Amino acid sequence: MMLPSFSNSDHHLPKKSNTLELRNSTFSLIKSLFSLKNCAWIVLTILTQLLIVVFLNRASLWPSTLPAIQDNFQAPPHEKDCEFGTVYVYDLPPVLNKELIENCQDLDPWPWSSKYCSAVSNGGFGPSATGLDGIVPENLVPAWYWTEMYAAEVIYHERILSYKCRTRNLDEATAFYIPFYVGLAVGKYLWFNHTAKDRDRHSLIMLNWVKDQPSWKRTNGSDHFIMLGRLTWDFRRLHDSDTEWGTSFIYMPLMKNVLHLTVERSQWDELEFSVPYPTAFHPRSQSDIQQWQSFIRARKRSSLFCFVGATRKSFKNDFRGLLMNYCKNESDSCRLVDCSVTHCYDGAPVILKTFLDSDFCLQPKGDGFTRRSTFDCMLFGAIPVYFWEGSFKDQYQWHLPGAAEAYSVFIDNNGVRNGTDIRSVLERYSREEVNKMRETIIDFMPKFLYSSSNADLGSVKDAFDIAMDGVLRRFMEQKRPASDKEVNT
Questions:
Q1: Is the bond preceding 63 in cis, omega lying within 30 degrees of 0?
Q2: Most buried residue, 124, 195, 269, 339, by CB count within 10 Å?
């Protein structure tokens, strides 16, 4: 940017169907025009009804190019490769994931848009990227997609179904994954005149289902985890007010022990861990990564810094507007992409080229403190310039270096408002220092990429692998006897 009644015998939300009305109206029309004594017309009526039913059933599956994620997992995990244990994946009622994909046209709050159907295609990667000639090496273009920044719920589900440390044995699992697309489910109801019940509906269905599972009852959910595709603040509504933003999902009593992954975490929640936003590059092999690293390392850059974004006129003293005006005035050093003019959503060739040709990229706050654009700019070897500590402090601790100064620059936003000159600060960095920071980004780059589910990265671990290691390690240590923990402290 959601409770209907629910029972164990019916996990689906009510669906609208006009099949019966159409069938009756068709029959009545034919009956009024012709005598039922005419057998030929009776046959024609029946055939017409059948054609209508077939048509409506096919239409309900629109678009046909978006099949639900398939579970084709067969191979057992290899013990030697799973030092932190294994994960069990729940098979949830389809209304909580599969049907959200199948009915993707209903996800978007704006009915004229087809963005969500596009976003959830290709296992969450979105449509194949186009217009990359001369920007990305030709043989790497098939690994690029216009990926929606809030698609991680679908991507993680797709990946975990073929994860090497997945188990189908409930009794041997270290962790239990709940593949609920809560971000997709609530997204439609974040705007306009929807109620708090609308925003909570799917979450309550999921919790009512999972609380009856034997594996949940054993631990009250303390070895369960979920991926939240949106910012954490979208799931933290405090009151049941229809005018208050978001769902109360995280604050629901049954969620008190569940670990959650999200693209931006709350630093006050010990059960929440942030994972990188998905970018446009989804490597198919280790050689894809190595080729891209070499490509951006050798790139000759013509601009000192850049800014990609749009002003937010509804914000008082909008900092983005300040950066945009500054960049316009420093046009000999700064490249600007104004997203109020250029279509920037989920990627555009002009954005990629801008990052590729710049040493630094200005990164103000996004919808929260963090921003998908930060990972986009690092993907192209540009060094992020932060203006709020919350954009990097206590975020992505599993994936990014602890010392943010090794790969980024921090200039306090208040200092900029009071006259600190951004260009002067950046010009103080020598070419050797800039190259060193870029090399740091190149080295940890695989840690913020999401490869395809059938990729062979060799010994390289991508963002998903590192997140799974973090989750399993935490649960394994949590289950160790207290005496063992004392010995190792």
A1: yes
A2: 124
Name the 3-class secondary structure at 14: coil
Neighbours of 432 (CB within 10 A): 8
The span from the CA of 429 to the CA of 447, in Å, is 26
Question: What are the extents of the domains in the chain?
Answer: 21-59, 79-274, 300-448
The count of C-alpha atoms lying within 13 angstroms of the C-alpha of 390, restricted to the half-sphere facing its C-beta, is 14
pLDDT in tens, 197-254: 999 999 999 999 999 999 999 999 999 999 999 999 999 999 999 999 999 999 999 9
Q: Where residue 486 falls among pLDDT bands split at 50, 70, 90?
A: low
- Average pLDDT value for the chain: 85
* pLDDT, tens digit (0-9, with 9 covering 90-100), for 230-246: 999 999 999 999 999 99
Return d(Cα 237, Cα 230) in angstroms, integer. Answer: 14
* Cβ burial 367-403 (10 Å sphere, 16+ → b, else e): bbbbbbbbbbbbbbbbbbbbbbeebbeebbebbbbee
Q: Letter for the amino acid at 281?
A: F
> What is the CATH T-level fold of the domain 300-448, as seen in this structure?
Rossmann fold (3.40.50)
Which residues are registered as beta bridge partners of 362? 385
Location of structure tokens 């959503």: 345
Structure tokens at 439: 């090399």
- Token match 């800039």: residue? 434
335 - beta bridge partners?
A: 306
What is the separation, in whole angstroms, between the first and last Cα of the chain? 44
106 secondary structure, DSSP code: G
- The four Cα atoms 370, 376, 377, 381 give a dihedral, to 10 degrees, of 130
pLDDT confidence of residue 113: 57
Query: What does DSSP say about strands 303-309 and 358-363: parallel, antiparallel, or unpaired?
Result: parallel
Q: How far apart are CA 211 and CA 344, in angstroms?
A: 42
Cβ neighbours around 470 below 10 Å, total: 18
Continuous segment of H or E residues that includes residue 355: helix 349-356
How far is the C-alpha of 352 from the C-alpha of 280, rounded, in Å?
10
